[in-house]
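Record pair follows.
FIRST:
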Amino acid sequence: MHSDPTTPLNGEIQSDAGKTNGADTDAGRTVLVGVLGGIISAAGYLVYQRLPDEQKERLHRQVRGVLEQRINELRSNFNL
């Protein structure tokens, strides 16, 4: 006779206490990532606010340059 470890034996009651639902785990991870993202964003904003105007302008130029490059890549990929 072949015994399956997932089925209860003669009257044995199985508990699901040790098992976690995949949806619960995913939801918990999603909330954790959201909270961590918010904390990191807030910290970045505080650091940015303390930068001198010269460094803020340099960052703006770099971001604009990266965005322009990305837009040009997308345009070339989609032949726009």
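SECOND:
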Amino acid sequence: MPDGVILALIIVGLLLIVAGLTWLLIYSYAVRVAYRFFGRPALRPAYDKSPLSIDQSTIFGRGKNWFYSNRMNVLDWQMTAFDGIKLYAYYIPAAKKTTKDVVILIHGYNDAPSVMAAYAQLHLEKRDCHILIPHLRAHGMSEGNFVGYGLFDSQDIAMWMQYLESRLGQGLKIILHGRSMGAACALMTAGSGIAPNTLTGVIADSSFDSLDTQIAYLAQRKYRMQLRPFLMLVRHVVLKRFGFPIEKASPASIASRIPVPVLLFHGTADELVPSYMSDNIYNRIRSPKRICLIEGAAHVMGYDAAPEKYSAEIDKFRDIISDNEWQKLIGRTPHSEDYE
């Protein structure tokens, strides 16, 4: 065999080896990214215990302190999810056992469920109601090895709604109030068609419009470049390893099917989930809707940045859905005089 042919074969072989190693490295990195985004963000604790110290510089820290100061009045509930994992929740019973008003508070990614206590205080100050704070799968005391990003969690929340009805009786009036990933979960629960007819309203604070666009946004923000081919590989890995179809985790895609009134909150200085994502959701909702943008607020910090405005919006929302005067709900953030 001529020396030139042998040399060419050697070069081709080396190129194939380099290409194979490069592909292996890229695939291995995609697997790491998939586990970084979808793997359980913190180990499941052996038991739920009060933190040794709580930063009370924000309204959420003060709410968390209130929660653990009143921990003896909080019940621990559990149930089994559709795929067999055990899910846990905090339950705060209403003062009047016969009340039918319920608020389900849904936390965000890598949040402690107790961070939702500030919202629990807010709702309890307005109206006697039952409060349920689920520990989302792969968070808190709930089992699970990967995060549901609102898609699998929406099925869990629908089951919690049914569980509440089995414990509290028929005729419940349930509001879902979530933040960040929990907001996406609330919206997907409402638009999926699986929620019981006990659902009366949704409050969504700082939701992403779709997980696909959220991951692409974070990748572009971190690396300053488009990584679509790589993200397609990550999508493939997530589907193969976790059975999770990323493209279906999209509140915007099912927003038009939400049958109940929706109140959206978002901070204009949100750098993690930009506020235009809530605009995208708002524009697709066909049921009565309202969006409140909190000027200068960072991610999920709207309530802390403007507590009076936030509280007033929820007052208006609750009054309107109670009176069925939904036409008053439609619109964007009202003028300041509406709060006077």
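COMMENT: Confidence is low (pLDDT under 50) at residues 333-340.
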